[in-house]
Amino acid sequence: MVQRGIIIGRFQPPHRGHIEVSKQILREVDELIVGIGSAQESHTSENPFTAGERVLMLTRALAEAEIDLSRVHLIPIPDVNNNAIWVSHVLSLSPPFEIVYSGNPLVRRLFKEAGFKTRKPPMFKRKEYWGTEIRDRMVKGGRWEELVPEAVAGVMREIKAVDRLKDLSKTDYLLR
Ligand code: ATP
Ligand code: MG
């Protein structure tokens, strides 16, 4: 039987820590599901990139790291803002899986209560490989390229991500 593990994050943006942890998980399971959370969000300071842009960044970065893409499934997951039904929401969108990898205690708790095996994966250079730090450096004009895979930096240039983040930091309002 094929054993699958899932990791869920917002990947705003994907960074070197995410790629390291993906490699690690793929040593333990046959296939990896990457759940792209808050998929409906984009163009805010916390969530600057669309789900499609995050899919592109992750696909390119996984390929660059020589990860066999036939072993990886990328699934955008919109928020439901209801913890009690979130696990069934994820199950409705994802290929079947047995193991849930997450650094987030709430995510582990919700899946554990639903009967799943949960594991806390190791963190790699967390003070730098951290989405909040990367977005902050991009706005302030700091060195961020070294914290993301080259392929991610390439997509960021293509979509003019620094300009977007700088604009969002000035006008972080929601269009209603
Ligand atoms: P943000 O600051 O935007 O929350 P983040 O770096 O925490 O960004 P997420 O998309 O929230 O990125 O990450 C989701 C999951 O990815 C985490 O729960 C954790 O399991 C894993 N992860 C994040 N950073 C690292 C890292 N440096 N090393 C290994 N795994 C990581
Ligand atoms: Mg996080």
How many structural units, i.e. domains?
Answer: 1
What would CATH call the homologous superfamily?
HUPs
Structural class: alpha/beta
Describe the largest sheet.
Answer: 5 strands, parallel
Shape: globular
CATH class: Alpha Beta
User: Considering DSSP H and I runs of 4 or more, what fraction of the residues is helical?
Assistant: 40-55%
Round the mean pLDDT to the nearest integer and report it. Answer: 96
Residues in β-strands, percent? 5-15%
How would you explain this protein's 3D organization?
The chain has 176 residues and is of the alpha/beta class. It contains 7 helices and 5 strands; from the N terminus they run E-H-E-H-E-H-E-H-E-H-H-H. It has helices at 16-28, 51-64, 83-93, 105-113, 131-140, 150-158, 161-170; strands at 4-9, 31-36, 72-76, 99-101, 117-119. The longest helix has 14 residues, at 51-64. The protein starts with a strand and ends in a 6-residue tail after the last helix. The mean pLDDT is 96. The structure holds adenosine-5'-triphosphate and magnesium ion.
